[in-house]
Amino acid sequence: MTDAAAPPLLDVRDLRVTLATAHGPVAAVRDVSFTLARGETLGLIGESGSGKSITALALMGLLPERAGVQGRILLDGQDLAALDDAAMCRVRGARIGMVFQEPMTALNPLHTIGHQIAEPLRLHKGLGMAAARAEALRLMERVQLPQAARRLDAYPHQLSGGQRQRVVIAIALACGPQVLIADEPTTALDATIQREVLSLIAGLVAEDGMGLLLISHDLGVMAASVQRLMVMYGGTVVEQGPAEALFLHRAHPYTRGLFEARPRLGLRNGAERRTLRLPALPGRVPELHLLPPGCPFNDRCAWAIDDCRQALPPRLSVAPGHDARCIRLHEVNA
Ligand code: ADP
Ligand code: MG
C-alpha cells in the first residue's frame, strides 16, 4: 500500500533528454513527469522507438555520450540529475537496480556467474570474497536458479536464456535497491519462460517493497503486472493512469490505436482474434528529427486538426489520477 502523506520514492519532473544525432541534437524525451511510490508497480508502454529505454537510461545515469539531461530525478528527495559520475555510480546498483532486455549483453562472458553477482556486493557493500560469494549463492537461490551451488562457477554461455535473465535479476537485486527498472525483461525469452520471469520479478518486488518501473511493448505483459501505466509516444507520456482504468477506458487516440493493433486481451478463439486485429495504427514511429511539431502523434492520428500541430498538448484530466495529452480529448471520448 502507498502512503499518500509520504513523499514519493521516485519523483521525475519535466525530464528532457537531448541526444546527439547525425541530424544534430534532438529531444528523445521531453516533458516527462511521474512518480513512483514504495511498493508501487508502474508500467511504461509504447511502440519501439518511442523513448522508453532512453527514459530508463536517464534514470540510471547511463545515457549515451554527449546526451543532455534537463529536469529533476528525485530519488528519496535527492536529485540524481545533478550528481556527477562518481556519485551516480554509487547510486546505480545500490539504490536503483536495472534488468536489461538482452541478458547476454548485460553479462560479461569472461567472468563466472558467482563473480558477477558478488561484484556489486564487494563494490557497494564492502563485503569480502567469502561473504560476497555466500551472499551470491543466497541471491541465486532467491531467483530460483536451479542447482545454484554448482552454477556459482559457471559461465554465462553455460546457462539458458531464462537462467541468464535470473542471474541479471540477482545482480540487480544484490544490494537491495529501492527501485527496480526492468526494460523489456522478457522480450528475448519464449512465452512460458516469460511468464516465469515476470512472476519472479513480481514476487521479489512485493517481498522487498521496491518500486518497480516495468517497460514493455507487450500489453499482455502489462495487464498482468502493474498497478499504474504510462503510454509513451514520440518521447513523451501521452496518457497515464491506473492500469485497470486505462485498460477499460483508453482516452488518447494513440493508446486506442496501440490497444487495437493487437488481439483483444482475454479472447481465446482464434477466429475472433483475427477479425479483431485492426489496422489501427497506420504508419510507424518516425525518427526523432522527423517527429512533427505539436502533438508528436498528429501525423498518424485520425482526429488531428491544425491546432494539434501548434504545441505539445497539456495533460488534461480524464478521471482522478488519469490524464491524457490530447486537445480533442472530449470529442475523441464523446
Ligand atoms: P524504445 O525503448 O521506446 O524502443 P528508445 O528509447 O530506445 O526507444 O529510442 C528512442 C529514440 O531515440 C529512437 O528514435 C531511437 O532511434 C533514438 N536513439 C536511441 N539511442 C540513440 C543514440 N544513442 N543516439 C541517437 N539516437 C538514439
Ligand atoms: Mg527500448
Core attributes:
334 residues, alpha/beta, eight-stranded mixed beta sheet, 13 helices, 34% helix, globular, binds adenosine-5'-diphosphate, binds magnesium ion
Mean pLDDT: 91
| Number of DSSP strand runs | 12
Overall shape: it is: globular
Strand line-up across the major sheet: 6-7-8-3-9-10-12-11
Number of helical stretches of at least 4 residues: 13
Bound molecules: adenosine-5'-diphosphate, magnesium ion
Which H/E pattern describes the elements? EEEHEEHEHHHHHEHEHEEHHHEEH
Whole-angstrom Rg: 21 Å
- How would a crystallographer describe the biggest sheet? 8 strands, mixed
Name the poorly predicted regions. Answer: 266-278
Give the SSE layout.
Blueprint: E1 10-21, E2 24-36, E3 41-45, H1 52-60, E4 68-75, E5 78-79, H2 85-91, E6 96-99, H3 103-106, H4 113-125, H5 129-142, H6 148-151, H7 161-173, E7 179-183, H8 191-208, E8 211-216, H9 219-225, E9 228-233, E10 236-242, H10 243-248, H11 253-260, H12 270-276, E11 316-319, E12 322-324, H13 329-332
Parallel strand pairs: 3-8, 3-9, 6-7, 7-8
Antiparallel strand pairs: 1-2, 1-4, 4-5, 9-10, 10-12, 11-12
Helix pairs in contact: 4-5, 4-7, 5-7, 7-8
Bound molecules: adenosine-5'-diphosphate and magnesium ion.
The site of adenosine-5'-diphosphate has 14 residues, from β1 and α1.
Task: Summarize the structure in words.
It is a single chain. With 334 residues, this protein is an alpha/beta fold. The protein has 13 helices and twelve strands. The chain has helices at residues 52-60, 85-91, 103-106, 113-125, 129-142, 148-151, 161-173, 191-208, 219-225, 243-248, 253-260, 270-276, 329-332; strands at 10-21, 24-36, 41-45, 68-75, 78-79, 96-99, 179-183, 211-216, 228-233, 236-242, 316-319, 322-324. The model is unreliable at 266-278 (pLDDT under 50). A hairpin with a 2-residue loop joins strand 1 (10-21) and strand 2. The strands form two sheets. It has an eight-stranded mixed β-sheet, sandwiched between helices. A four-stranded antiparallel β-sheet has the order 2-1-4-5, with helices on one face. Residues 52-53, 183-184 line the site of magnesium ion (MG).
